[in-house]
Design a protein that fits this description.
Order of helices and strands: HEEHEEHEEEHEEHEEEHEHHHEEEEEE
Structural class: alpha+beta
Helix content: 10-25%
Number of strands: 19
Strand content: 25-35%
Length: 382
């Protein structure tokens, strides 16, 4: 998920139209306070970020993430072709198993982070960030062979239900989803409408993400919030939940100048691909993996009660800027302000005390392991 600025007439551009999503009227009818996000009108909150955050941690929240780009990518050699653009092992990936990956530029910088799921030998379902989806498609069209076809599924909404009671509630409407484990996906049906459901999410909680035909989205959302465990949740709580889960936000914690090693996303570099060194930017990325990057993304526990926001500096003893805060806020579950920042590698050790500078005021923070709140993904019954 990422931000997208809208150009104004003062910039010399015609203002871009802010688009609406299939559930726009539904959100307004439910009392959602709408803001522009990633080029769309979207709900930032309903009853308040704190209440929505805590409800999701204890029950289940419905998130409309239809601004994300859903792609169906097909072709006889689609898996091999996509491996040329990212470090995931795709050709040997099992069907219906989602994988997190990164679209990389030639310098090893992250153009986007994404989820892909092989649905058949010649078809892959992919979800990319909303603000970058058109750039992602242009990049893939430019670099993929002509026999690979990309279709943007703009006739589908994407709904996520997250929280410890999410799957229990959704299973009443969509029997069978409880059999999925973390990162498993499959085809299901609700009231005659085809759904694609993945047991995944962006909050650190158990839950599902469901691709649904746009014409059925409103009725399906109504059916979901009719379950006593599920309430609609806005973008504000989605951000505080993902921050507590230690999950990076594209456009803030990730950008084209940052490599996967700097971002502490080494798990996305699959062993076969590392050994082959055959993905974009491999020489730089593998050298950083071997020798360490100059800076690294870390979690921070901030002293006091005042949050330190994105854009604050990390400074050394002489007040020289040595890093930057990329996300920050008050964490409702933690009960304290937390942040993510890029700091020099020598400081990227849990327990290290660093100084943050925000609007001329110094804040003391301690490097800590992430996530800030334990993930509660369902990996099967042991």
């Amino acid at each position: 998920m990422s931000d997208a600025p809208v150009q104004s007439e003062d910039d010399g551009f015609e203002p871009l139209e802010i688009l609406t999503l299939p559930l726009d009227a539904w959100h307004r009818a439910k009392g959602g306070r709408m803001v522009e996000f990633a080029g769309y009108h979207m709900p930032v909150q309903y009853e308040g970020i704190m209440a929505e955050h805590l409800w999701t941690r204890e029950n289940a929240g419905l998130f409309d993430v239809s601004h994300m780009g859903q792609l169906s990518i097909t072709g006889d050699n689609v898996a091999t072709a996509l491996e040329s653009l990212m470090p995931a092992a795709i050709t040997d990936a099992p069907l219906n198993k989602a994988r997190y990956s990164l679209l990389l530029n030639d310098e090893g910088g992250v153009l986007d982070d994404l989820m892909l799921t092989p649905q058949a030998a010649d078809r892959i379902y992919m979800v990319v960030n909303g603000a970058t989806k058109y750039d992602d498609v242009a990049h893939m069209i430019e670099h993929l062979p002509d026999d690979v076809t990309l279709n943007m599924m703009e006739d589908h909404a994407l709904l996520a239900v997250q929280g410890p009671k999410a799957v229990e509630a959704v299973a009443r409407l969509v029997p069978g989803v409880a059999a999925l484990t973390f990162m498993q996906a499959g085809a299901f049906e609700w009231n005659g409408h085809e759904l694609w459901v993945s047991r995944s999410g962006y909050t650190g909680e158990d839950g599902v993400e469901m691709s649904v035909p746009a014409e059925a989205a409103e009725a399906f959302a109504d059916a979901l919030v009719a379950q006593p465990e599920i309430k609609p949740i806005g973008l504000g709580a989605r951000d505080s939940l993902r921050l507590e889960a230690g999950l990076p936000l594209y456009g803030h914690d990730l950008d084209p100048a940052i490599t996967p090693v700097q971002a502490d996303l080494g798990f996305a570099l699959f062993k076969r691909r590392r050994e082959a060194g055959d993905f974009p930017g491999a020489a730089r990325i593998l050298a950083e993996r071997e020798n360490g990057p100059a800076t690294k993304r870390v979690g921070l526990l901030v002293d006091g009660r005042q949050p330190v926001r994105e854009g604050a500096d990390v400074v050394d003893a002489s007040s020289a800027v040595v890093g930057r805060v990329t996300s920050g806020g008050f964490a409702p579950t933690v009960g304290a302000p937390i942040a993510m920042a890029y700091v020099p590698l020598a400081d990227a050790v849990p327990g290290t005390v660093v100084t943050l500078s925000q609007r001329g005021k110094a804040h003391r923070a301690t490097v800590t392991a992430m996530p800030f709140v334990p993930h509660r993904y369902f990996r099967g019954v042991k």
